Amino acid sequence: MAMMWAGRFSKEVDSGVNAFNSSIAFDARMYRQDIAGSIAHATMLGEQGIISAGDSLEIIGGLKEILADLESGKLQFDPNAEDVHMFIEAELTSRLGDVGKRLHTSRSRNDQVALDIRLYLRDEIKEIRELVKKLIETLCDIAGKHADTIMPGYTHLQRAQPITFGHHMMAYAQMLLRDIERLNDTEKRMNISPLGSCALAGTTYNIDRSRTAALLGMDGAMANSLDGVSDRDFCMELANALSICMVHLSRFSEEIILWCSWEFKFIELDDAYTTGSSIMPQKKNPDVTELIRGKTARVIGDNMTLLTMMKGLPLAYNKDMQEDKEAIFDAVDNIKLCISTFIPMLATMTVLKDNMRKAAAKGFINATDCADYLVKKGMPFRTAYKITGGLVAHCIENNTTLEELPLEDYKKQSELFEEDVYSAISLDTCVKERKSYGGPSPESVRAQIELVQKKLKELCNG
Ligand code: ARG
Question: What is the full per-residue pLDDT of the chain (462 aa) written as tens digits?
Fold first, then answer.
C-alpha cells in the first residue's frame, strides 16, 4: 500500500518497520471518538468557510456511514493501516475521492490522537465511576446489615480493640469515595480540547477551537498548542487514580483472603466465586481476590510505564507517546474487570458473625476499656494503663480473661474497681460506647452510611 506521505519518499518503508510502527491493533478501539472528532472538525471547517458547506456536509455524511459500517461489521479494520486515524481518513477518501482529502486541512494526527484519547478515557471514567459507585452501595448494604456485628479490630495484625464489621466495610467505602473524587478531578482536566493545536504550532487558517470543543462537549480549548499535543498528564493522572483505587481493592482482597482462611473463618465466599484444587478435595480457594491483588501490580506497572515513557521527552510529539495507549487501556480494562467481579462476590459472601465475636472475646481487646473505666473514676490514664497491664499479665498467667477475673483480684490492683467493671468491659458496651464521630458503634455506622450515600449522590450527579 502506498503511504500517505509517498510524495516525500523515494522508497517504500520496510514491511517490518511498518508493522513495528503500526498502532491499529490497539488504537482501533478509539474509532468512535476519532469519527466524532472528525465530524466536529469538518463542521467547524465548513462554518468558518475553510472548506465549502457542501464538502463539509459530504464529509460528515461519509464519516457517519463509515461509523455505521464499522458498527455493523460491514467494514473491517485493515491490520496493515498505520493507525485508526489513517485508516478512517483513507476509507473516507476511497469513498468520497477529493472531498475526503479536505478533512485533514488544518489538523494533524498529533492533535487528533491527543483528542481521541481524551474522548475515549472520558467515557471510560464514566463507566469506572459507575462501577465504583455500585461497589460503595454494596458496602453500604453489607454495613447496614452488620452495624452491630462485633469483630476484633487489628493493628500489626494483632487483636487491638473491638469494632463492628459494618465499620470495617465503611472504611473501604470512604477510600472508594476518594477514588471517585480523584476520577472526577482527572475528568475535569481531561475534558479540554487539544484539537486545533495541529502538528505543534497551531495554524494560519481562521479556525474556531472553542466551537469544536463545544461540539464535543468539552470545557474549552487548551491554551498552548505545544502543550496541546505534548500533554499526557491526563493519562498519568488517570493511571495514578486507578492505581490508588486498585491498592484499595488489593488491601480489601488481602483481608478477604485472610478472613476466609481456616485460621480466621470470619466469612465464607459463595461457591460461585471460589475455585477448587485439582488435587486437594477440601480446598476452596479465593482466586478472585488473589487475582485482584495480582492485577494491582499490573495497573501500578501501567502507571509506571506512562511516567517513565514521558519523563525524557522533548516537546512536542514523539513516537514514544504511541506507547501511552496500551498502558492506559490495560489499566482501565483491568480495573473494570476487577470491580465488576468483586461486587457480586462481596454481595454473596456469608458473614460468620459468631466466629467474629469469638475472636473478639479473646486477646484482651477490652483492655483499653478497662483502663478507661479507672480513668472515668478519677485515675490518671497512665496509672490506669499500668494497672490494667498488670491485670492482663495476671490473666495470661492464670489462663483466664478480664471478663472472668473475680472482683477480689481486680480489687488487689485498685480499690476503684466495683461490680460495674464487668458491664464496662463487656464487648457490647465497648462497641456501643465508641460513638465518637467516625467511630465503630452501631449508631455511628448507621450515620456513616447516611453520609456516604449523600456524598455519593453529590459526586456522581455530574
Ligand atoms: N499512532 C500515533 C500515536 O498513537 C498517532 C500520532 C502519530 N503522529 C505522528 N506524527 N507520527 O501516537
Answer: 566 767 777 788 888 898 999 999 999 999 999 999 999 999 999 999 999 999 999 999 999 999 999 999 999 999 999 999 999 999 999 999 999 999 999 999 999 999 999 999 999 999 999 999 999 999 999 999 999 999 999 999 999 999 999 999 999 999 999 999 999 999 999 999 999 999 999 999 999 999 999 999 999 999 999 999 999 999 999 999 999 999 999 999 999 999 999 999 999 999 888 887 777 777 788 999 999 999 999 999 999 999 999 999 999 999 999 999 999 999 999 999 999 999 999 999 999 999 999 999 877 888 999 999 999 999 999 999 999 999 999 999 999 999 999 999 999 999 999 999 999 999 999 999 999 999 999 999 999 999 999 999 999 975
Task: Give burial (CB, 10 Å; 0-12/13-18/19+) of 251.
Answer: middle
Residue 221 phi/psi, 5-degree rounding, is: -110, 145
Catalytic residue among 10, 15, 72, 156: 156
Distance from Cα 378 to the centre of ligand 1, integer Å: 73
Exposed, middle or buried: residue 13 (CB in 10 Å: 0-12, 13-18, 19+)?
Answer: middle
Q: Give the span between the Cα atoms of 332 and 272, in whole angstroms.
A: 25
Cis, peptide link before residue 316, omega less than 30° from 0: yes
Ligand 1, CB cutoff 6 Å, lining residues: 23, 27, 83, 109-110, 113, 317, 319, 321-322
Task: For each of the domains in the chain, give its residue range(s) and CATH number, in order of start.
Answer: 20-107 (1.10.275.10), 117-191+228-358 (1.20.200.10), 367-425 (1.10.40.30)
Distance CA 221, CA 210 (A): 6
Burial class (CB in 10 A: 0-12, 13-18, 19+), 227: middle
Q: How far apart are CA 3 and CA 21, in angstroms?
A: 13
In the reported structure, the alpha carbon of residue 34 is separated from the centroid of ligand 1 by a whole-number distance in angstroms of 13
Cell of 410: 481486680
Question: Cell triple for residue 233?
Answer: 498528564
Burial of 57 (0-12, 13-18, 19+ CB in 10 A): middle
